[in-house]
């Protein structure tokens, strides 16, 4: 019996080899473009006219100029974007610990950012109405859970975003009251928690455990939390900021609300941007990424930029000698990019208001 052997043509072998190479390249490209690293990239965002987010009933925005909040763009790095960011002057690589609390997951991080925005809106309304000489009514809603510690008493029971309103039948009227009610408790004690989740009231019984990641060996719920408050105003202020997180828009929210409340054009016809956390006493707090916000403001045609003129204590300077105020960083960045935009230092909202009122209308 004759057996015939047939060799595959060289062209077929070459084609198979090329296909293998293409497949490998495709896998490498997909990996470099899609695989998420434990790092984030910060870069300039955009300017957003605050009047598009804020409406004061019966008033509305009628200014000739504009007041804009500034954002930075944050994205989780892939191998490709990580390498690309290394080559860019105005893109900053950040470890995940620099962005997110090590004890919180992605959902808890997002909830914390939205809570910071909510608090920013509260303070903006309060300060603006105070400066306009109008009264407000403040209501305590409960204790807002920021994150639940792994292995703690509330793990798998409570969630970030829940609001505790009662403990053992007692209505919670302040954050300190929750602390006072839990302090005498012992390990193994049970507490009944009334809370609100997704606008629905629920009740659970939790057995207290030792709080994880501490050396205090005391009983607790194993949560981190803050106060939840709301503010009633007349006229009513509506704010739509579902896609924006963090506290840095507080100053510009305050100025926009005040601009709509008052019978004057605070903008004087200028394109005005700014950043800074609005604190309840009217002071402007330090924020992150101000250099990227200056770049974005210049790119988007802003003429005036308000920057927090925060003071850095001697203790912090000793630990971080390279640290400088937001205003100093903003001035340095403005000089680097050669902008004609005016950088204005503000310690309080009154500094911003006084500056605007002395401007000649454009």
TrEMBL record:
The protein here is known as endopeptidase La
Record domain Lon proteolytic: where: 242-359
InterPro entries from the UniProt entry: Lon_proteolytic (IPR008269), Lon_Prtase (IPR027065), PDZ (IPR001478), PDZ_sf (IPR036034), Ribosomal_Su5_D2-typ_SF (IPR020568), Ribsml_uS5_D2-typ_fold_subgr (IPR014721)
Task: Give the Enzyme Commission number.
Answer: 3.4.21.53
The reaction(s) this protein catalyses? Hydrolysis of proteins in presence of ATP
Q: Which residues form the PDZ domain?
A: 113-199
* Species: Lysinibacillus macroides
Transmembrane stretches, start-end: 20-37
Q: Could you tell me the keywords of this UniProt record?
A: Hydrolase, Membrane, Protease, Serine protease, Transmembrane, Transmembrane helix
Q: Top-down, what is the taxonomic lineage of the species of origin?
A: Bacteria, Bacillati, Bacillota, Bacilli, Bacillales
Superkingdom, according to UniProt?
Bacteria
Active-site residues are 248, 293
Q: Name one GO biological process term.
A: proteolysis
Statement: the UniProt record of this protein carries the keyword Transmembrane: yes
Say which family it is in. Answer: Belongs to the peptidase S16 family.
Q: Name one GO molecular function term.
A: ATP-dependent peptidase activity
């Amino acid at each position: 019996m004759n057996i015939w052997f047939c060799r595959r043509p060289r062209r077929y072998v070459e084609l198979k080899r090329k296909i293998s190479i293409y497949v490998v390249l495709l896998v490498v490209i997909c990996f470099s473009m899609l695989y998420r690293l434990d790092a984030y990239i910060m870069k300039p965002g955009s300017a957003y006219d605050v009047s598009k987010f804020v409406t004061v009933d019966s008033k509305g925005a009628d200014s000739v100029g504009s007041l804009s909040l500034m954002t930075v763009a944050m994205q989780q790095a892939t191998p490709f974007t990580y390498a690309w960011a290394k080559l860019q002057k105005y893109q900053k690589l950040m470890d995940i610990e620099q962005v997110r609390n090590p004890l919180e997951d992605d959902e808890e991080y997002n909830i914390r950012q939205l809570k910071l925005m909510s608090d920013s809106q509260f303070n903006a309304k309060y300060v603006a109405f105070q400066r306009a000489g109008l009264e407000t009514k403040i209501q305590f809603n409960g204790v807002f859970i920021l994150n639940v510690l792994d292995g703690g008493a509330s793990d798998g029971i409570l969630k970030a975003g829940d609001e505790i309103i009662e403990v053992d039948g007692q209505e919670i009227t302040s954050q300190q009251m929750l602390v006072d009610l839990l302090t005498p408790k012992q390990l193994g004690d049970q507490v009944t928690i009334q809370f609100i989740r997704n606008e629905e009231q629920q009740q659970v019984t939790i057995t207290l455990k030792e709080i994880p990641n501490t050396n205090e060996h005391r009983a607790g719920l194993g949560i981190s939390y803050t106060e939840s408050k709301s503010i009633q105003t007349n006229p009513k202020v509506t704010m739509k900021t579902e896609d924006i997180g963090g506290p840095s828009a507080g100053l510009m929210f305050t100025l926009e609300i005040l601009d709509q409340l008052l019978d004057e054009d605070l903008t004087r016809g200028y394109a005005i941007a700014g950043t800074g956390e609005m604190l309840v006493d009217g002071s402007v707090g330090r924020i992150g990424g101000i250099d990227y916000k200056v770049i974005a403001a210049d790119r988007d045609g802003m003429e005036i930029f308000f920057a927090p003129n925060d003071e850095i204590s001697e203790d912090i300077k000793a630990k971080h000698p390279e640290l400088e105020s937001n205003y100093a960083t903003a001035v340095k960045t403005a000089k680097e990019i050669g902008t004609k935009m005016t950088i204005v230092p503000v310690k309080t909202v009154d500094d911003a208001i006084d500056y605007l009122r002395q401007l000649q209308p454009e």
